[in-house]
Amino acid sequence: MPLVLLACSALLRPGTARAVPSFAQQTGQPCATCHVGAFGPQLTPFGRAFKIGGYTMAGGTGPGSRLPLAAMLQTSFTHTGRAQPEPPEPRTGRNNNAVLDQISLFYAGRITDWSGAFVQGTYDGIARSLALDNTDIRPFTTVISLGDTDLRVGTTVNNGPTVQDPYNSIAWGYPFFSSSLAPTPAAKTLLGGGNMIGNAVGVTAYGWYGEHLYAEFGGYGTYGPSLLRATGTTYGPGSTVNLAPYARLAYEWDWNGQAAHIGGMLLHASFNPTTGSYSTDGSAGHDSYTDWALDAGYQFIGTGEHIVSAYGIFIGESQDLAGATAAGTSSQPHNTLSQVNANLTYYYRNTYGLTVGWQTIWGKANPALYAPAPVSGSANGKPNSNAFILEADWVPFGKADSWGAPWVNMKLGVQYTLYTHFNGGTRNYDGSGRKAADNNTVFAFAWLAF
After folding, report:
1. Looking at residue 2, what is its pLDDT?
2. Residue 406: is the preceding peptide bond cis (ω within 30°)?
3. Do the domain assignments include residue 397?
4. Gap between the Cα atoms of 239 and 242, Å rounded
5. Radius of gyration, alpha carbons of the chain
6. How far apart are CA 286 and CA 268, in angstroms?
7. What pTM was computed for the model?
8. Would 426 be classed as within a structural domain?
9. What is the DSSP letter of 44?
């Protein structure tokens, strides 16, 4: 029952996910009803309905059904193909690091018949800091009857684009938990990289017609310096100049234990470029990003013995980097990035899982934006990277018949990331002699939810 677990949704350092058994207590449903693999964050059709319904669904009994509190712990071991020149974080080594990644507490569940919330507070065991993590508050939702068809409408206040998305497209996308100590590609789209998650607040309104057509519209603005400090976060690309519009449209089909969807997203944001963790300056110009995405997914749930899910998303980004160009951190004002993420997962009885993922990003060369630097830089100024991810999981606790259900949940996994291209190259990609294969990563983890 994780991250949005159990009945349905949510984390955040990039690439992590959350779990919350309070949803299972509230609904009276096992985690597998809402999540593929009984641990999430991949949602089943039931799980999507729970999230769209504002976390308000009831059905459980006992004191736990009225206590929307939960906790999560994640710990891991990271090994890269070659040690990094310097430790990636204080109190870590150049390679072979075992760490406590995070401890999270959740308020996750219904508030009234028409409102609910998913709020996560996280202690980062690597940075040794506290922060407000994924947050999705649903102030109001209800169902309107339109003849023979129902229209579910609602509002959400959240802290980043796609945290609230019922298809868990980006904020909850694969890999659901990944290393914070291994090198990762420098280039990230605004939408796909989650660069506004945790440092912004958004208000959106949505409608779900006939449990098939989903539409959502709203806008985002970044926090001010005081709120950044209070929530334990910092600016991403900068502070928004004005409201950043966001739109989401999707259509879903459900039939005979199967489900499929196709959809799209749009996000446009202009920023005063960052000059520090809590400061920005737009006097020399703004940096603007327009991201559009197409995504699709398929799930075979069947009887729950054999479960297959497939997901893919393409993100295209157009950048107008007037501010960065004036500051000398971009070689030209007009830049582009494109990104593809895809994965295929198989689970046997929600206990044994295997996932194959593919991630690739490419774009226009920009020697100033992607400058040479040990490990994180690009010798040729290109952002292109390509990776394949293989993961095996075991969920000994977390099903309806598990010991301690629903409050004892555990997932053990081993993940291998193979890079065929990293920051524009394969050999000496950073200008300091490092190869893409040097960043290949073995990541073993334990993920518990209570």
Report:
1. 38
2. yes
3. yes
4. 9
5. 21
6. 13
7. 0.92
8. yes
9. P
